[in-house]
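JOB MANIFEST
job_type = single_chain_structure
chain_count = 1
residues = 255
[input]
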Amino acid sequence: MPLPDELKRAAAEKALELVQDGMLLGLGSGSTARFFTEGVGRLVADGMKVRAVPTSRDTAALAAELAIPIVTELVGEIDLAVDGADEVDPALDLIKGRGGALFREKLVASVAKRFVVVVDDSKLVKRLGVGVLPVEVLPFLWRSTAERLTGLGLTLVVRGGEETPFVTDNGNIVLDVTVVDGIGEPQRLATDIKAITGVVEHGLFVGIADTVIVAGPEGPKALGRLSGGGRVARSTPAHGESTPGETRDRPSQAT
């Protein structure tokens, strides 16, 4: 049985096959995404010309250490964004952000032509909400924001505790939300949470992932979104090949 880190590395290595010379990349945060960033560093060392938008200060520091050119502002789209996830459901909806970088991760994913998620098979769930759902909120009057979240029937705790809360790269705090019995309607909950004044962002990524590369004992496989919202398992395309049938709510993109 492969070790968890071996599975994470295998998923990241498959995603590296999608990287092409001249691309603008989105670099995710977390342990699996780190393997991808390290791989991009090897490609750069071998002469490939790419630039990258990091989703956290930690990822930016790693990219700088690996001599990956960093972009902090842009107009237009990112060619390919690759990141991990905490949970993935059968519709390829995600929970992300337990590492605390959810806001920047979602910003990068939302402007990517293609958003690829790399996970090991322990992240696959039948229904989102097995673990906590991170919600980033403004520190100002955060208790008022928390009260309105509990009004949705949610329970929550302040990450790090009220005395020494975890602070995001954006200077905000994170409320870890628990949904009893899981999240039956991810889009509805996402809309309800985002409508609360004081909420900066939440960790529900609904309809955003184009492809999820899952590494298991039998090797990595790619799950791609179909136009109807389902999924299909396929081999990861070779470098430079397109993968038909993968769409979000916008035209599909070639790899």
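[summary]
The helical segments are 4-16, 31-45, 57-65, 102-110, 142-150, 186-194.
The two ends are 31 Å apart (CA to CA).
exit_status = 0
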